[in-house]
Amino acid sequence: MVKRTSFEGDGCPVARSLEAIGDWWTLLIIREAMLGVRRFGEFQSKLGMAKNILSVRLRSMVDHGILALVPASDGSAYQEYVLTPKGRGLFPILVALRQWSEEFDDHPEEIATILVDRAKGRPIKKIELRAEDGRVLSLADTTLKPRRRSA
After folding, report:
1. What is the Cα 87 distance to its own chain's centre?
2. Which DSSP string do the residues of 37-94 spell out, in sequence order?
3. pLDDT tens digits for 60-98?
């Protein structure tokens, strides 16, 4: 088996984030957690994952502070997985991935759901990247520069 590269100490924030969420199973687990799934067996049945793979991914997500293990909400002896603030912070990323797929998928008519505003029942607008002054930015409008280090 190929050894996985670690990006934990990488200077790039994109690479660093992939340390915690860099495989498709993790993003699908997060999607299900955002839809209300909380128990190991529910994740397993919804995603059809092998139990050993699911166990490793859930443990890693707890270790990275994306999910927390809490006592079962029904008072049983089980534990449940709940999104932490760090986990809920992934919502715009999942929305961006969804919107990218809706725009560029070869068969968008096969996409089974649309994301709507719960209060109004209307589709949400496309996520936009904005400058501090409110201008919409594209790739051509941005650049990277070194971060100033404090002494």
Report:
1. 7
2. --SHHHHHHHHT--HHHHHHHHHHHHHTTSEEEEE-TTSSS-EEEEE-HHHHTTHHHH
3. 999 999 999 999 988 888 999 999 999 999 999 999 999
